[in-house]
Amino acid sequence: MAAPPATAPAASRCLSGAKSCWAAERSSSSFAVSAPSTGLRQSRSRVLSVRAKVATGVQRASTVDDGAKRPWKLSDARLVLEDGSVWRAKSFGASGTQVGEVVFNTSLTGYQEILTDPSYAGQFVLMTNPHIGNTGVNPDDEESNQCFLGGLIIRNLSICTSNWRCKETLEEYLTKRNIMGIYDVDTRAITRRLREDGSLIGVLSTDQSQTDNELLEMAKKWKIVGVDLISGVTCDAPYEWLDKTDSEWEFKRDQSSETFHVVAYDFGIKHNILRRLTSYGCKITVVPANWPASEVLNLKPNGVLFSNGPGDPAAVPYAVKTVQDIIGKVPVFGICMGHQLIGQALGGKTFKMKFGHHGGNHPVCDLRSGRVDISAQNHNYAVDPESLPEGAEVTHVNLNDNSCAGLQYAKMKLVSLQYHPESSPGPHDSDTAFGEFIELMKSNRL
């Protein structure tokens, strides 16, 4: 059926913008010191939605040193890594200079959930999926109330959006939130470097007055290990959470008729963790990361959740002490940072991984049943299973590297996972973990 006449101009503008940008992309290049990248091949793409919106950053004209104007944007940003490599790129979103740890994420979708995941505080996220921005941004996919990451690194910035839920473009979104982004950079080469050398500190800058060496010195001096990042992302005061997963997205139909009061420690908690617990029949009180354990226990909760969060678990001894004061008294569930804090609270050790796990396609095996789930993960630290006391059982392992991905300790009434069972973004394989927590609280109630 033909589209309504009113929609034709939007589609026409999008196609017109696409043609000019395709030509521009074929003429542009980005490189890392000695590795020039190839241009993009022309595509016979067509607009898939009449609600298309043209992105602006990829179309701005640039003036070069000879005074001539070019109809495409030229490289105006740099990523300088602590190993000395310099990567020329084009900027979108905010401008300025920012320092962070560069990590790569292998998720194919869900860039907005990644942008608003507090666990990325202090980091630049490089998306290995080369095409980002095509679905735009909408208010329903937020995982927190703001963006905490330092910057976004992508290969291709979509020239238009074509999703019915889109409210604004990715560039508009990042600009409003003062988050830097770069595109037209060889993300594949940077990813290979991170896999070989490990996570690297980098500096993103659009400031042409600073030399490469000055930016390199900034990268070498900046540290993320041993820094308390949780205090910068936690809530200021306790609050009640009531929202469930929207009915149109709910995939679990056999919901419990029982109600459980859960106190959730906010170490950087994601909204969909709270929604999933509420959908499973939980009444939730969220408390700040430094909230006293005694006050939590005075609430007589049926269970306590220790949430995900950013950074080094060894840098937050106050959180470890809180976990120690609670485990064994009520059922607990740890997710990601919460899992690592439980490991330390039990007397175990955590260590920094070479480049961490970030993505929505990590295979995890439940050693109790042999079941394999595809999981969403985001962490740079892991629990050393050899350091755990007798009674603490490793329940899950990451099949990519056999690292510890889950724990249980029957005597202490605890379960924990190194990954994100709410899977936002990611597959829903691990949602059953919330049901396991419910069963743990049920058995403790009897």
UniProtKB/TrEMBL annotation:
Keywords: Amino-acid biosynthesis, Arginine biosynthesis, ATP-binding, Glutamine amidotransferase, Ligase, Nucleotide-binding, Pyrimidine biosynthesis. The keyword Amino-acid biosynthesis applies. GO terms for biological process: 'de novo' pyrimidine nucleobase biosynthetic process; glutamine metabolic process; L-arginine biosynthetic process; pyrimidine nucleotide biosynthetic process. PROSITE patterns: GATASE_TYPE_1 (PS51273). It holds the Pfam family CPSase_sm_chain. Pathway: Pyrimidine metabolism; UMP biosynthesis via de novo pathway; (S)-dihydroorotate from bicarbonate: step 1/3; Amino-acid biosynthesis; L-arginine biosynthesis; carbamoyl phosphate from bicarbonate: step 1/1. It catalyses: L-glutamine + H2O = L-glutamate + NH4(+). InterPro entries: CarbamoylP_synth_ssu, CarbamoylP_synth_ssu_N, CarbP_synth_ssu_N_sf, Class_I_gatase-like, CPSase_GATase1, GATASE. Residues 75-205 form the Carbamoyl-phosphate synthase small subunit N-terminal domain. It is an enzyme of class 6 (ligase). Heterodimer composed of 2 chains; the small (or glutamine) chain promotes the hydrolysis of glutamine to ammonia, which is used by the large (or ammonia) chain to synthesize carbamoyl phosphate. Small subunit of the arginine-specific carbamoyl phosphate synthase (CPSase). CPSase catalyzes the formation of carbamoyl phosphate from the ammonia moiety of glutamine, carbonate, and phosphate donated by ATP, the first step of the arginine biosynthetic pathway. The small subunit (glutamine amidotransferase) binds and cleaves glutamine to supply the large subunit with the substrate ammonia. Belongs to the CarA family. This is Carbamoyl phosphate synthase small chain, chloroplastic. It comes from Zea mays. The gene is LOC100273931.
